[in-house]
Design a protein that fits this description.
Largest sheet: 10 strands, antiparallel
Oligomer: single chain
Shape: globular
Number of strands: 10
Structural class: alpha+beta
Number of domains: 2
Radius of gyration: 20 Å
Distance between the termini: 20 Å
Number of helices: 6
């Protein structure tokens, strides 16, 4: 028997990203870090840090160390339940305490809007935005003997899932990627990863012998980059609408993957 990560949904994490055409300059990271007070009521912890990017040149790969900052709300074990990251060429809100889409997305939109307003107000309105990203991970756990593992109790054959998954036992990987609206001014690259995994010590303690993780990474790309000032001025029509469209697509893909019984159990009707 497969069970979802939660009695009402299967989402273990969701990430909302604004992606820029180039790495953010150190002045932007410093500005955000120095204005932690604007986010401290929701995200009291502050962590600095670096990310790395690799540039391939004719002389060989060049590693760039890029500054970053993260505001977060931490669980008792020190891991973030919510975070706002500014690093590399993105700003992102991560949620690892998912409840329902309306509540979680509303909080993410509010944080991103506040950050966009900060950047524009400080004179960085000309930063070039290349697109948006929505990443959602759903987890399902096999609560029976591993020898009885039956993937067809969770997933159904589909053109977005490798057929061999149904003959591979509990450990396998399927990856499919494609473009939606490839010729349009705004297109979306969809990366759908589905993994069959053995139980970790944590999931084994919960009575699971195996696990299936569905990770949907959607990258909505502007053919012509837009300034962040435009994104801020057209927030509902641009960022919110774009994220909502990717959310709808994610639900549609899940319904295509999951058996009707499992989909109904997590509210996908």
């Amino acid at each position: 028997m497969f069970k979802s990560a939660n009695s009402e949904h299967a989402v273990s994490g969701v990430t909302f990203q604004v992606v820029f055409s180039a790495p953010l300059p150190p002045d932007v990271v410093n500005l955000v870090q120095n204005n932690h007070r604007n986010f401290k009521s929701e995200l009291p912890a502050l962590n600095g840090g670096q990310t790395m990017s690799v540039e391939v040149t004719p002389q060989g790969p060049v590693i760039h160390h890029l500054p970053g900052v993260e505001f977060s709300f931490l669980r008792p074990d020190g891991t973030p339940a919510w975070s706002l990251r500014v690093s590399g060429s993105e700003i992102a809100v991560d949620c690892r305490r998912y409840t329902r889409w309306v509540a979680v997305s509303g909080q993410a939109y509010m944080l991103l809007a506040r950050l966009c307003s900060l950047l524009v107000g400080a004179g960085f309105g000309d930063l070039q935005v290349s697109g948006l990203v929505l990443l959602v991970r759903d987890d399902f756990f096999w609560h029976a003997d591993e020898q009885m593992y039956d993937l067809r109790a969770l997933l159904q054959p589909s053109d977005i899932l490798a057929d061999f998954a149904f003959q591979s036992g509990p450990v396998w990987h399927s990856h499919v990627a494609w473009f939606e609206d490839r010729q349009a001014p705004v297109s979306t690259l969809v990366h759908l990863n589905v993994d069959g995994l053995t139980a970790t010590p944590e999931t084994a303690q919960r009575g699971a012998a195996a696990q299936v993780a569905i990770t949907n990474f959607q990258n909505m790309r502007y053919r012509t980059p837009r300034q962040i000032s435009w994104l801020g001025a057209n927030y509902n029509e641009a960022l919110v609408s774009g994220m909502e469209n990717m959310h709808i697509r994610n639900k549609s893909l899940l319904k295509k993957l999951l058996t009707p019984a499992i989909a109904s159990g997590i509210g996908l009707t």
